[in-house]
């Protein structure tokens, strides 16, 4: 997913400072008694009905599902900011010189903060409207808008980002006519499409937003991220989708490749071992406790002194999951992702080879082997007992 | 089962499916009619630059099509009370979306659910419908519609 050069995640880690700052926007008003650009009118109703193939209501009212149209900023607002002309860009907060705006406030400021952090794309995921009474030509709509919530960072098939929910209440002459709750995902694209890949990649991005509600799609159970090895097929996790060496390399954009591992000072020794077909485990020089994945300090005593030793390569399946859905590029479900407990006492997340995924069982003996994924990537995997 | 709401709908009634050809024209016209000028709904290159294989339908058009679908079944005098949708697989040009629906609840007149203290009109029963719009990639939209039927039931001519 990352070969097209998706950006790094500077805020990587359990503490998400960006999220903390985004949460400050929750409850903030994005618009107060903001007037719609146009009163409800017959031409806009008719144009909308033509586009939708919707009959014009015989009583001359506006179709109910047209509700939000009366609050939209329109194209003119595009000249004021770079985000304001969609339903995401909240006319109400766009600071376009009308009441209730103020560019530094509310929704636009929130979106700008996300843009600045690299979450530049947007997609709408949910729309919930309630209608108190039909709108008629001549009605003048005003609306209040509030930022209801900002989600923690979520990783979806589209990319990693934050869900932002706003609620808008519409009135005419002070009387409620409807409400509108709207949820968007502001995200960092997982990859950009080129013309040459348009057709074949359509399906791989197809369900994107369908997975957004679940965020990390349940793969947390695989322990992904604890090893730094992108073997689980969870191409949507942050740890698997970023990393030096992943950006712009390979040139084989047509063929999806497995995510590249993140190699850094703390784990470089591990990957050097892999390239030499050795599975290296750390051991604390002070207390002797083995540890994996690679870390700069000892979990048991805190010592920063350590040595590496080669694991014998024998272990058992401590736990496992069989991935059926969602399908990630470069992975061919179903396949087994296992937490293997090595004889040396540490555990590693990897794939099980040589055994049909439905035959994998807890306690199954496994043995290390190295899988050549492509010309740049080799991974330690585990062959199930009894396999030829 | 029941093809229209001419007769009083009951729980479990299926709405007749509606196939919608997702043309480039529909996507662009829908985006502009809903005053949504996000480039991903009309500019293919911009859409690709943002990680999408092509332009795709905006949520407000989907919302309008869901409204059209249930209105065609319930008749033009039915009144929509609530439409709540969630998007899944995008509607790209060239695809076909098939809308289906099923009545999940029916309440008699004066059951009093939808108004929430807001002045409404006189009306008959309230009907809740689960709607789904599927394309070649999966479910584009799933959602729930709550509407009230006119009292007496008339004019469900479509």
UniProtKB/TrEMBL annotation, chain A:
<feature type="compositionally biased region" description="Low complexity">
    <location>
        <begin position="218"/>
        <end position="244"/>
    </location>
</feature>
<feature type="compositionally biased region" description="Polar residues">
    <location>
        <begin position="195"/>
        <end position="209"/>
    </location>
</feature>
<dbReference type="Pfam" id="PF01796">
    <property type="entry name" value="OB_ChsH2_C"/>
</dbReference>
<dbReference type="InterPro" id="IPR012340">
    <property type="entry name" value="NA-bd_OB-fold"/>
</dbReference>
<dbReference type="InterPro" id="IPR039569">
    <property type="entry name" value="FAS1-like_DH_region"/>
</dbReference>
<feature type="region of interest" description="Disordered">
    <location>
        <begin position="191"/>
        <end position="265"/>
    </location>
</feature>
<dbReference type="Pfam" id="PF13452">
    <property type="entry name" value="FAS1_DH_region"/>
</dbReference>
<dbReference type="InterPro" id="IPR029069">
    <property type="entry name" value="HotDog_dom_sf"/>
</dbReference>
<protein>
    <submittedName>
        <fullName>Zn-ribbon domain-containing OB-fold protein</fullName>
    </submittedName>
</protein>
<dbReference type="Pfam" id="PF12172">
    <property type="entry name" value="zf-ChsH2"/>
</dbReference>
<feature type="domain" description="FAS1-like dehydratase">
    <location>
        <begin position="116"/>
        <end position="177"/>
    </location>
</feature>
<feature type="domain" description="ChsH2 C-terminal OB-fold">
    <location>
        <begin position="310"/>
        <end position="370"/>
    </location>
</feature>
<dbReference type="InterPro" id="IPR002878">
    <property type="entry name" value="ChsH2_C"/>
</dbReference>
<dbReference type="InterPro" id="IPR052513">
    <property type="entry name" value="Thioester_dehydratase-like"/>
</dbReference>
<dbReference type="InterPro" id="IPR022002">
    <property type="entry name" value="ChsH2_Znr"/>
</dbReference>
<feature type="domain" description="ChsH2 rubredoxin-like zinc ribbon">
    <location>
        <begin position="271"/>
        <end position="306"/>
    </location>
</feature>
From TrEMBL, chain B:
<dbReference type="InterPro" id="IPR029069">
    <property type="entry name" value="HotDog_dom_sf"/>
</dbReference>
<protein>
    <submittedName>
        <fullName>MaoC family dehydratase</fullName>
    </submittedName>
</protein>
